[in-house]
Amino acid sequence: KAAEDILRCNSNWYNSGPRYDCVLFNSDQPGVACARLRSLVRCQLPSGRVVDLAVVQNMKPNKWRPKTSWDGCVVFEEEVDLTFLLMDFVIRGALLAHAQGPSNSRRNFHYLVDVVDGDMFLR
Predict the structure, then answer these.
(1) Contacting residues for 71 by C-beta, under 8 A, at least 6 apart
(2) What 3-state class would DSSP assign to 64?
(3) Are 50 and 44 in contact (CB under 8 A)?
(4) Between the CA of residue 42 and those of 49, 55, 56, 60, what are the distances in Å?
(5) Structure pTM?
(6) Helix, strand or coil for residue 42?
(7) Cα 30 to chain center, whole Å?
(8) For a disulfide at 112, which of 35, 54, 74, 102, Cβ 3.0-4.6 Å?
């Protein structure tokens, strides 16, 4: 039986600013693939087939580690470019926490929080 995650993608969430949830998805690269949802699009092809797409900002794994690193610590860097992702490849929602990266860096780092649900497969 398939499960459902409620994913938010809103530029003004209850008048308190933007909320763009993150997802884990299947990729041709080894390891975990994460992205931040920026928009959701439903396309109807001339054949009548309906395709659900997400406009996402990919998160690429980064080698930087904090001073207080832990076993299984995964740090991602948010890319600037937007890409399309078929929703068929999305596994589930993901929680990424902002990480204060190196003081000389202007990049956006995030930790993957892998203990949200009892069934999270990353542990």
Answers:
(1) none
(2) coil
(3) yes
(4) 10, 11, 14, 26
(5) 0.77
(6) strand
(7) 16
(8) 74
Cβ atoms within 10 A of the Cβ of 79, count?
16
Residues 6 or more apart whose CB falls under 8 angstroms from that of 22 comprise 34, 35, 36, 37, 59, 93, 94, 95, 96
* Chain position carrying tokens 């600013």: 17
Q: Is 70 exceeded by the pLDDT of residue 10?
A: yes
**Higher-pLDDT residue of 10, 48:** 48
Cβ atoms of 19 and 107 closer than 8 Å: no
Domain ranges of the chain: 9-113
Three-point CA angle 31, 71, 36, nearest 5°: 45
Phi, psi of 31 (to 5 degrees): 90, -170
Q: Which two tokens stand for residue 98?
A: 């902002």
| Model pLDDT, residue 51 | 95
